[in-house]
Design brief:
Number of helices of chain A: 16
Largest interface: A-B, 115 and 111 residues
Shape of chain B: globular
Order of helices and strands of chain B: HHHHHHHHHEEHHHHHHHH
Chains: A mainly alpha (308), B mainly alpha (341), C alpha/beta (429)
Helix content of chain B: 55-70%
Distance between the termini of chain B: 52 Å
Helix content of chain A: 55-70%
Strand order of the largest sheet of chain B: 1-2
Number of strands of chain B: 2
Distance between the termini of chain A: 6 Å
Structural class of chain A: mainly alpha
Shape of chain A: flat
Radius of gyration of chain B: 25 Å
Number of strands of chain A: 0
Largest sheet of chain A: none
Radius of gyration of chain A: 24 Å
Oligomer: heterotrimer
Strand content of chain A: under 5%
């Protein structure tokens, strides 16, 4: 039942003129028009709802604190001020934005690469190789998905401490690189790939690893992209694990931890221009990547639409 | 020698274990061991600070405190279950249906600018939950953007104090038709130390705001998954039903919907697990306030374990949550029945 | 597949990534662990409480939470001073979500060398045997306010010296009060009358956060309190507490008192600063908050109004704790001693007018902050709110109830009885 789809085949984006739909042709013109108007307005309404908060956040970061709370919907800050950016975000000495960004990228990179390798190998083994204990291994991997992550925080910390991995990049990245969901995803994906080419390679005398490396992996590109994207998103946005794995070393802070620090302690008033600016700041790198790789990004997520 | 190496290389049993070994070691160290340790902790009175294996084993005491023995632990657990249940019952259908409708519209042939819409909808999904929650905190303040925006459509100035309003929406609705206090039976009887009237309060306005936030962030991802499913429906089927002369609507219900069952199942499963485990938003926005109406089970785990120093009870909550999730997933599977297409 | 040349593309990408990981692993292994506290050199000097922790030079970390960026900077300056005169190097590390981080560090056996502890967390942390006793490690141990020292003592052991402290007092907007012809209230009746008179238009008389660490001062003034002095019996539902909460409930009902969120403010100080409320009850942190956020506001502070049983307020404090089994205990205590030395404490508290925890500094501090006398006078009768391990659950319950009273959907009597029940099970257990 497992099957994975790549959605782009039937898309009409790049076609200059959408084809006339025979079913449409049978309908009266007013019905067609009003249907489209309705469809477009619904889509635009939701697009507005999804994009506007981000625009508002950007605008707010240039407002003064009183204006941000008293006129939250004004689209043009008056007076516009760089206070949030110049004094608080970049100028307070508390914020080491370049370092946080580097850390976020570096750890995200390791986690993503680690997941691609580990999850694809394990996923392939579970999908194709008949080895004793396979069913049990798979059952265990899937059932770990239902455990809420928060409960593992302290036990994980103790493990990291025992292994001497606290306050290091390895302690922040390695636990995230082992990930049950990715294995599940890749297993489902490999099961949807036809077997013929593997059989041929086997007849030619290739080892399992050679088959996997030369034949299967190249076919698995869409699945790998999906995995890359989900890993990137997950590792980039992770907060609690980074905080707990590296509490003692300020030079190991990531953007999410830094953002939480900026929010400050309870009891202080919330400085919305600063918080909005910082939120946008943590979003910008991932947004750039998103727009550059948009095509793959969306295909990838769609490819997670695993059946059954 | 080479022959031997080739044999080994071709052995599926050996390769299978070799391929899974790195991940299994990693999982054992960073996932399974912590899980078993947490399970062990749930039978102890560990405070979460002193060395964990010195804590005293107390058997099922933590589970009893949550489920049987009257007291604050059971009441807080009941409140969290109530909040979380309304959260799941609200968020899962809402995010599933909106994202499905959007996917169907985006999938229409006449539509232009598909990639714009897809990107726009997906954008919130790539933002960190800390950042998103902070932005929502700003939007939902009493004289914030949401109230100002809604005031445009509603006569008078709307000044709902979204994030601080503890009134249950069902109670509010009953208040409108004149039922202000509990009918006798509902007030005097209850379950897990909470009266039925309280169980029926509905999500508080504050929790509702968090539900809106969660729905808003996940719609994009779910829409893309539905879109993939829709585009995977063989074109021949569509043509066949057009020749039959089936109307668009008939086609949708007879052909499209049944074929979407597996995708629907996937989306619902992911949605149910994620909604039962909601934590980040509560943590950043409300910390369980006002009046405990935004405490969810995952947040209760955090509060018991990290601010109230009862890690034993916290882990017990987590494993009860685990059971709840499994039950919900199975029931949902029965209901959707993805194998029967 | 609709991707460009998948064969070549994927394989090259993967090889590239593998190389990347290898490079990263090497880099991560060696280059980046500068400040992990790896230097295991033992403190040289055997004498505890000595002026110098050792010649070997140990790197120390002080972990705490951030009250404000300005305060962090000031503390870092003092620590720079320490680093200049000592062979050790210390660093201040403010972390977000402090409770979680500290707990993980303690549970994992990797505690920071010195860390902040809130007075109300002492019972839990002491019971868990995580704190090293302070007795014998601190210079001039008798020069601390006894009630503060008491707050950091559990079952007879004194654990850590108070960093500084704050008390709750009444702040009022001088402009609004003189416009309304109101004198700063000195007892409950005057407070109620003043709040009534000051409530008009967009201004509310009193803004008060709905939590026990604000409301509780009225219990103290009524002669009540959540427990008896030995912490063996709950007294939450006793008449003085009900009287106090009824008094507050009335003010909220009449609209002469309000929650910060009712005034679109994140906390009481914000509403007060914006002139939406004429009075509030907060602590020393108001000084820095008003100076930074609302420099033009004219305000003064007075002792809290007296209740039926006289004066009463809370004091809050944080201490510098050294963990049980610290890596370099001598060096840790050396840093603590430096931070609570009269000279440094005075330098710090003058700037951020929290109050020095050493009575010997009282006069010098008052000289620098004459208008904050009310905070200091309140210390005479202030109580440190701290109870027994596990009591936080009771406070959660009570705070939830207080939010209900303020919102008008719970009755004081009912809330206090629930608290009584909950608390009894914690105390009795």
């Amino acid at each position: 039942m497992a099957d994975v789809q790549t959605p782009s085949e039937t898309e009409t984006d790049e076609q200059p003129e959408p084809q006339a739909d025979p079913a449409d042709a049978r309908q009266p013109a007013w019905w067609r028009v009003s249907k489209r108007v309705l469809g477009y307005s619904l889509l635009l309404f939701f697009a507005f709802i999804f994009i506007f908060p981000f625009m508002l956040a950007i605008i707010t970061s240039f407002k003064t604190q009183p204006e941000a709370t008293q006129a939250p919907l004004d689209l043009i800050p008056s007076p516009a001020t760089m206070r949030a950016w110049a004094e608080e975000i970049f100028g307070s000495g508390q914020v080491n934005f370049p370092r946080w960004t580097f850390n976020s990228f570096f750890i995200t990179f390791i986690v993503t690469v680690g997941r691609i390798l580990l999850d694809s190998m394990a996923g392939y083994a579970l999908a194709r190789l008949k080895f004793p204990g396979r069913q049990i291994v798979f059952a265990v991997i899937v059932s770990t998905l239902a455990i809420p992550a928060i409960v593992l925080a302290i036990p994980r910390f103790i493990v990291l401490g025992t292994l001497g991995m606290l306050n290091s990049y390895s302690g922040m990245a390695v636990p995230l690189a082992v990930d049950a969901f990715g294995i599940f995803l890749m297993k489902q994906f490999f099961e949807s790939i036809p077997r013929e080419m593997e059989e041929a390679a086997k007849v030619d005398g290739a080892t399992v690893f050679q088959t996997f490396w030369r034949v299967v992996l190249p076919l698995a590109a869409p699945g790998l992209i999906a995995l890359t994207i989900l890993s990137f998103q997950g590792a980039w946005n992770e907060f609690l694990h980074y905080l707990i794995a590296a509490p003692a070393d300020q030079s190991l802070r990531t953007l999410t931890v830094g953002l939480a620090l900026l929010r400050g302690s309870q009891g202080q008033g919330l400085d919305f221009p600063v918080l909005m600016g910082a939120s946008i700041l943590t979003t910008v790198p991932v947004a750039i990547i998103f727009f550059v790789f948009q095509r793959y990004f969306i295909q990838g997520v769609a490819a997670t639409g695993v059946k059954g | 020698m080479n022959e031997l190496r080739r044999r080994i290389g071709q052995s599926e049993a050996l390769s299978g274990w070799a391929f899974t070994a790195p991940v299994l070691i990693g999982l054992a160290v960073f996932l399974l061991f912590p899980i078993f340790m947490a399970l062990y902790i749930s039978f102890t009175d560990w405070n979460g600070i002193s060395p964990p294996f010195q804590a005293e084993l107390i058997g099922l005491q933590n589970y009893k405190d949550l489920l049987v023995n009257p007291g604050i632990s059971r009441l807080d657990f009941a409140i969290s279950v109530r909040n979380n249940l309304y959260y799941v019952l609200g968020v899962v259908p809402l995010q599933t249906s909106i994202s499905f409708v959007l996917a169907v519209i985006v999938n229409q042939k006449f539509l232009r600018g598909k990639s714009f819409f897809r990107s726009a909808y997906y954008f919130p999904s790539i933002t960190s939950s800390v950042a998103i929650s902070l932005i929502f905190l700003f939007l939902f303040t009493q004289n914030g953007a949401v109230n100002k925006f809604l005031s445009v459509f509603i006569p008078g100035d709307l000044d709902v104090n979204w994030l601080f309003n503890a009134n249950g929406v069902i109670h509010n609705a009953l208040g409108v038709i004149g039922i202000e206090t509990a009918p006798g039976f509902l007030a005097t009887h209850g379950f897990l130390g909470q009266s039925w009237w309280e169980w029926l309060a509905g999500p508080s306005v504050a929790l509702l705001s968090i539900m809106i936030l969660a729905t808003w962030t996940t719609i994009g991802t779910l829409m893309l998954i539905f879109l993939a499913g829709l585009q995977n429906i063989p074109v021949e089927l569509e043509e066949a039903s057009q020749i039959d002369g089936a109307s668009r609507l008939q086609h949708f219900f007879r052909v499209t919907l049944p074929l979407m069952k597996p995708t629907l199942f996937f989306v619902l499963t992911v949605g149910i697990i994620g909604s039962w485990q909601v934590f980040d938003q509560v943590f950043v926005i409300s910390k369980g306030a006002p009046q405990k109406t935004t405490i969810t089970l995952a947040y209760l785990v955090y509060r018991e374990g990290f601010t109230n120093f009862s890690m034993g009870r916290a882990t017990a909550v987590a494993f009860i949550l685990f059971v709840i999730i499994v039950i919900f997933t199975l029931v949902q599977r029965r209901f959707v029945n993805p194998d029967e297409v | 597949m609709n991707l460009p040349a998948p064969n070549q593309w994927t394989r090259r990408l993967i090889i590239l990534l593998v190389l990347g990981v290898l490079a990263a692993a090497c880099g991560g292994g060696s280059g980046f662990e500068e400040s992990g506290g790896g230097d295991q050199a033992e403190g040289g000097g055997g004498a505890t409480g000595g002026s110098d922790g050792g010649d070997a030079g140990v790197s120390l970390q002080l972990m705490g939470f951030s009250s404000s960026p300005a305060e962090d900077q000031e503390l870092s300056k003092i620590i720079d001073g320490y680093n200049e005169q000592s062979s050790n190097t210390a660093e201040f590390n403010p972390v977000p979500d402090y409770a979680t981080t500290l707990q993980a560090s303690l549970a994992g056996g990797e505690p920071p060398d010195v860390f902040y502890v809130n007075d109300n967390q002492i019972p839990d942390l002491a019971t868990a045997n995580t704190l090293a006793p302070a007795e014998g490690n601190i210079d001039n141990p008798d020069d601390f306010y006894p009630n503060l020292k008491e707050a950091f003592t559990f079952e007879g052991t004194w654990y850590c010296p108070p960093k500084d402290f704050s008390t709750l007092a009444l702040q009022y907007n001088t402009q609004l009060l003189s416009d309304a012809g109101v004198e700063p209230p000195t007892n409950w009746d005057e407070l109620r009358a003043a709040a009534q008179k000051l409530t008009k238009g967009d201004v509310v008389g009193l803004v008060l956060g709905p939590e026990y660490f604000r409301w509780g001062v009225f219990n103290e003034q009524a002669g009540g309190g959540l427990t008896n002095d030995d912490l063996t019996e709950m007294t939450a539902a006793a008449p003085p507490n009900v009287e106090a909460f009824d008094y507050l409930e009335q003010m909220y009902q009449q609209g002469t008192a309000a929650e910060p969120s009712d005034l679109q403010a994140g906390w009481a100080g914000e509403a007060f600063g914006q002139g939406k409320a004429a009075m509030t009850i907060e602590g020393n942190w108001m000084v820095a908050a008003m100076r930074d956020g609302y420099p033009d506001l004219k305000w003064e502070t007075a002792e809290l109004p007296e209740g039926p049983a006289g004066k009463g307020t809370f004091s809050f404090s944080v201490c510098y704790a050294v963990p049980q089994g610290a890596k370099n205990p001598d060096a840790s205590w050396d840093l603590v001693n430096y931070l609570v030395s009269s000279e440094q404490m005075l330098a710090f508290t003058k700037q951020f007018p929290v109050m020095p925890s050493r009575p010997s500094l009282r006069d010098q501090w008052l000289e620098a902050n004459p208008d904050l006398k009310a905070f200091l006078d309140s210390a005479e009768y202030a109580r440190s709110p701290a109870w027994v391990p596990g009591f936080q659950a009771v406070l959660d319950q009570l705070n939830s109830g207080i939010q209900g009273i303020a919102a008008g959907n719970k009755q004081p009597q009912q809330v206090l009885e629930e608290t009584q029940q909950t608390g009894q099970s914690v105390l009795g257990g």
